[in-house]
Specification:
There is one protein chain. Helix content is 41%, strand content 15%. The strands form two sheets. The chain has a five-stranded mixed sheet, with helices on both faces. It has a three-stranded parallel sheet with strand order 6-8-7. The protein folds into two domains: 144 residues, Rossmann fold, CATH 3.40.50.450; 117 residues, 3-Layer(aba) Sandwich (Rossmann fold), CATH 3.40.50.460. It is α/β, with parallel strands linked by helices and 292 residues long. Helix 1 links the parallel strand 1 and strand 2.
Length: 292
C-alpha cells in the first residue's frame, strides 16, 4: 500500500537528537516523495490522544535543515504511556471508560496516517510496541516505526542510539570548564557525575572525548599549567567492580602528588559494592535503583 501520510512524535526525556531526527525525517520524506503529507503530534502521545497536531507545510520542509542546529524538540515531548489508563484519565487525555490505545488508534485513523514515527527511549518505544500490537489485533492498517533515542546508549541490540555521541561531546565540554576548578584550592576533589542508570557507556564515552581534548592542548607546567591536574584520574562505571578502599588509597597518592583528583562517575557505579559492604555488616538493604 503506498504511503500517503506520515506522522511524527517525540516523547520521553529530552536528548540532543530529537530536533535533528524530526528535521531528518522531513528532509528524507520530501526527497523520496514530496507528495507525502507529514504532520507532527504536539507533545508526543499527549497530542496524539487529544488530536493536537501541526501540519508540515512547504515552508517547514524548506527550512527543515535548521532543525539540526537546535536541541530540544520542535514538536514537544511528554511522558505519557498509552497503557497507563489511570494517568491518562487524570491528565484529561481520555474520558472515563475509554481505552487510550483505542483513542490513539482512532485518532490516527481519523487523521489518515499510514506511518507513525515514534522518536524516544524505552518507555516511548515500549508504548509504540503496545500501540502497534493493538493496531494489528484490531485490523488497523498502520505501520509504527520506533527510533531509539537515549543518551545512555543502552538500547539492546542497537549498537548506537540517537543522541548518545552528542551527549558525550557536551559532557566533555562541561568537564573542560568544571575541571578548571581544581586550581581554586589546594587538594581539590572534583567528581563529574554522568547519567546512565546501570549503563556506564556515556561516562566512558565522555571521558574518551575529554581525553581527546586534553591531547590537543599545549601545556606550561613551569607556571602550573600541568596536564596532570587536568587529567582524568578515575572512571567508575556500573559494569566494572572495584575495590573502594583500594581506589581511595590510590587516589590519595594522586592527591598528594598532583594536588587534585578528578573522577568521572557513572550514577550507577559502586552501588553493588556499597550494598555488599552493608550486607557484610549485617545491615538490611532495601530495593535500590539508580537513575531518574
Amino acid at each position: 500500500m503506498p504511503v500517503r501520510k506520515v506522522a511524527l512524535l517525540t516523547a520521553g526525556g529530552l536528548a540532543p537528537c530529537l530536533s535533528s531526527a524530526v528535521g531528518g525525517l522531513i528532509q528524507k520524506y520530501t526527497e523520496v516523495d514530496p507528495s507525502i503529507e507529514i504532520i507532527g503530534y504536539i507533545n508526543g502521545y499527549h497530542g496524539l490522544l487529544l488530536g493536537n497536531s501541526v501540519q508540515v507545510t512547504q515552508e517547514v520542509r524548506d527550512k527543515a535543515p535548521l532543525l539540526h542546529k537546535f536541541g530540544g524538540s520542535p514538536i514537544g515531548n511528554s511522558r505519557v504511556k498509552l497503557t497507563n489508563v489511570k494517568d491518562c484519565l487524570k491528565r484529561g487525555l481520555v474520558q472515563p471508560g475509554q481505552d487510550p490505545l483505542q483513542v490513539a488508534a482512532e485518532q490516527l485513523t481519523k487523521d489518515g496516517v499510514d506511518v507513525l514515527h515514534t522518536i524516544g527511549g524505552d518507555d516511548t518505544n515500549t508504548t509504540a510496541a503496545d500501540l502497534a500490537a493493538y493496531l494489528h489485533d484490531n485490523d488497523y492498517e498502520l505501520t509504527v516505526v520506533g527510533l531509539p533515542k537515549t543518551i545512555d546508549n543502552d538500547v539492546i541490540p542497537i549498537k548506537q542510539s540517537l543522541g548518545a555521541w552528542t551527549a558525550a561531546e557536551q559532557g566533555s565540554i562541561f568537564a573542560q570548564n568544571i575541571i578548571a576548578e581544581h586550581t581554586s584550592n589546594p587538594r581539590m576533589l572534583i567528581i563529574h557525575e554522568v547519567m546512565g542508570r546501570n549503563c556506564g557507556w556515556l561516562t566512558a564515552a565522555t571521558a574518551v572525548k575529554y581525553r581527546e581534548w586534553l591531547d590537543q592542548q599545549a601545556w606550561n607546567p613551569g607556571i602550573g599549567l600541568d596536564r596532570r591536574g587536568w587529567d582524568v584520574h578515575a572512571v567508575f562505571v556500573p559494569e566494572m567492580a572495584f575495590d573502594i578502599a583500594a581506589e581511595a588509597q590510590r587516589l590519595l597518592a594522586v592527591m598528594d602528588e598532583v594536588g587534585c583528583v578528578n573522577i568521572f562517575l557513572s550514577e550507577g557505579a559502586g552501588v553493588a559494592e556499597i550494598v555488599a559492604e552493608m550486607q557484610a555488616r549485617g545491615e538490611e538493604v532495601g530495593a535500590t535503583r539508580s537513575g531518574t
